[in-house]
Amino acid sequence: MRAIHIVTTRLSSCCFKPILLLDLVSVSSSPRKLSIPNRRFISAATKPDGGRSGSIVAPLVTQQEFQKIDVNPPKGTRDFPPEDMRLRNWLFNHFKEVSRLFGYEEIDFPVLETEALFIRKAGEEIRDQLYCFEDRGNRRVALRPELTPSLARLVIQKGKSVSLPLKWFAVGQCWRYERMTRGRRREHYQWNMDIIGVPEVTAEAELISSIVTFFKRVGITASDVGFKVSSRKVLQELLRKYGVPENLFGRVCIIIDKIEKIPVDEIKKELGLTGISEDASEQLLKVLSVKSLDDLEDSLGGAGEAIADLKNLFSLAEKFGYSEWIQFDASVVRGLAYYTGIVFEGFDRKGKLRAICGGGRYDRLLSTYGGDDIPACGFGFGDAVIVELLKEKGLLPELRQEVENIVCALDKDLQGAAATVATALRDKGQTVDLVLESKPMKWVFKRAARVNARRLVLVGKTEWEDGLVSVKVLSSGEQFQVKLNDLE
Amino acid sequence: MRAIHIVTTRLSSCCFKPILLLDLVSVSSSPRKLSIPNRRFISAATKPDGGRSGSIVAPLVTQQEFQKIDVNPPKGTRDFPPEDMRLRNWLFNHFKEVSRLFGYEEIDFPVLETEALFIRKAGEEIRDQLYCFEDRGNRRVALRPELTPSLARLVIQKGKSVSLPLKWFAVGQCWRYERMTRGRRREHYQWNMDIIGVPEVTAEAELISSIVTFFKRVGITASDVGFKVSSRKVLQELLRKYGVPENLFGRVCIIIDKIEKIPVDEIKKELGLTGISEDASEQLLKVLSVKSLDDLEDSLGGAGEAIADLKNLFSLAEKFGYSEWIQFDASVVRGLAYYTGIVFEGFDRKGKLRAICGGGRYDRLLSTYGGDDIPACGFGFGDAVIVELLKEKGLLPELRQEVENIVCALDKDLQGAAATVATALRDKGQTVDLVLESKPMKWVFKRAARVNARRLVLVGKTEWEDGLVSVKVLSSGEQFQVKLNDLE
């Protein structure tokens, strides 16, 4: 391991991620004529294998106070070094390509929003995990926990200047402040697709179709994952039947959504606290176990809107070609207060992972912000569970850096010539990794292998005088000399 | 304008961005049986021109408290509706394509970092504008004002597991909390390219080459913009000459960087406060006005490192092919404390705009975080000034939504068939905007024009019974029927 200057301790493990201490001189703002000891920080010397560039840097102590710096990103957050960024780009490109295939336009919002945008009184988990702050102007702000409220805000703001329906998508970072640590991060990226202005179930059907298209593109099949589908109108109809006031709807949904996380008795108790009768509670919970539309029709006693919507959706699923991917499951409610109709979630059939994605209809969200109600639906698809699933299925791609050329001067005087060669190739649209220092050939070949260069372009004195460069095709070993202008 | 439900006022202007009030019922957590008035929110009805989808939504009042929601993004931040997102993507794609052309790998870091990462004692403007908070765990955190400190953190963390040199780039959002409002935003995106591990000026020369490549790609020429180049070693050598302690270096640079913003007397006063003699101050300020390397050589009395680096850079600029873009200008210092060598900034030759981009060498940043010093340089290039410049030069592209097909059922019963057609086309990689509702043909043509569809695919009853669809090529008006499978 490269030596690291530490005041209190010395590291021996390469894996250990240290909290490092700065051993620099503290300087007050008053004039002082300190005699700074002329210490030399010597960085990793050039090693025989040429693995690292060396440099001996003359000291020029900056005016920093002695302080601890953690070299890790803040708890629950991620850096994206190149290998992780390649995977992120691969995943996001699939999100974006699918969205464009469906004719959706990309949008984005600030990652920092007004806190009030996310405050709903329905007892959602998302609210308790709000990453909120007070800014210097004493405004309550929050790192967005989801994208839909910002979308609703933008739709209201745009007003009549946009023509409905809107088909929009976004891939944005969302934050939640979780106290517990069970491998869940405090930030993730979420792919959202939303349709604003279509009251019909064709909208939900198309949204699910787009997720299925994504799955197919990354190699996931209907035997790996499925969608559980229900409608909140089922609960709505039951609440009406039992005379439960409709303003309790969101809260009841949030309570019922916890059914797999807390004991049934606890659920009943919470429902009781809202004022729902024991009889109604029993009935609600009974209906949640229904797994077929016919049984649901029996339970609800007649064909209401819920049944009609769901039947329509299943019929459309057949036409879109993804029948085998979806199933009715009354237990699906989803944890956001604003859903009003069809709700769905993607799940892995092995039952090992959390929901892969989820969405639904939210026809009344806009009015909660003071806008007109406009029918709307959408989904959120995180970047965490899908990667776990792809990993498990062996479907994560091997992504590596790739450049077409590595260009290198054969002696120091030819650095400028190598720059000219690199520029000529780049002007032709060719990617070039230019070797910026004088290095032994062994080092250059190692580097070429590391960046997966297709060919090595060498600039030597004699050839260059004739306007020639040497080219070595690295896959075949083929070698030739060519005029710079003829190099394609 | 579409009617918006507002409690206190009524809007008449379409441009006015309202603060809307929620007129929803407050619900406490205790059980209540409120009789909710059965009000109907009626959204924009379908108009004869078919411009907006209509829907009458049965009320289902959610449990929200009466609260103000501003439909604008927080002060100083931006939404990206589709038209702005297209421009952002166009710009970022140029950043990314140029970076890849130069063989750089993409990276990213958390937008929320530990505050200490950004705290330097040199009196930088960036520190006063830190967007900092205390999180729920009482940790001091900040929205990153720049990307370089995170990069340094990641390089230290990676330690020996990465091979030098690293050539990395990032396009990330940065934040600064500015109290004043003179059209500057509180967030912007910044393109960064950095080279870690190369002590030679070839690194700076390549970085400037990449920015020139970007400018050329978007149509900006050397008569539009240029680069002012200097080296902080000029100041370093002067400070040494006058016996000023080296630990004052960063602070002196930050003071001198303000030269165009505050009066010279103020600069002298601030320099005096650091303990620098009047004589030295005079000399420093005099050298800053030097505009040629020969004059600089005279001023410094002999050829030191500063002169050697700069001469080398200008020689390389010629070889890279961008001589006409750069000029020596001793007044360039840059406002970040950590630069140690070459510094440069891109400027518009008309002198109307702030710096377009800026960068330099920061060979000692890593040691301020406790790591080994590794030679490094890089630049930051914001997304604000460049857009102003492109706008002024008439170089902003006209970007519009584009889809290949708009698919529409000719009657409601054929919605499913239209879904089948859309899926077939999407499976072939064709982009499809599927009309999700039953709409008059006039509406469909309007929509097709708005999304710039290349062709309209109509699904009619008689044809569909024979497996045929009608296709209208919208540019030519050409019309034909074709089997779905034969539609390419």
Automatic annotation (TrEMBL), chains A, B:
Database matches in SUPFAM superfamilies: Class II aaRS ABD-related, Class II aaRS and biotin synthetases
One GO term of the biological process aspect: histidyl-tRNA aminoacylation
Statement: the UniProt record of this protein carries the keyword Methyltransferase: no
Record-stated family: Belongs to the class-II aminoacyl-tRNA synthetase family.
Protein name: histidine--tRNA ligase
GO CC annotations on file: cytoplasm
Gene3D superfamilies registered for this protein in UniProt: Anticodon-binding domain, Bira Bifunctional Protein, Domain 2
Any single Pfam family the record assigns to this protein: tRNA-synt_His
Catalytic activity: tRNA(His) + L-histidine + ATP = L-histidyl-tRNA(His) + AMP + diphosphate + H(+)
InterPro entries: aa-tRNA-synth_II (IPR006195), aa-tRNA-synth_II/BPL/LPL (IPR045864), Anticodon-bd (IPR004154), Anticodon-bd_dom_sf (IPR036621), His-tRNA-ligase (IPR015807), HisRS-like_core (IPR041715), HisRS/HisZ (IPR004516)
UniProt superkingdom: Eukaryota
EC number: 6.1.1.21
Aminoacyl-transfer RNA synthetases class-II family profile domain: residues covered: 76-397
Keywords of this entry: Aminoacyl-tRNA synthetase, ATP-binding, Ligase, Nucleotide-binding, Protein biosynthesis
Residues holding L-histidine: E146, L147, T148, R176, Q190, D194, R334, Y338, Y339
Organism listed in the record: Eutrema salsugineum
Gene Ontology MF: a single term: histidine-tRNA ligase activity
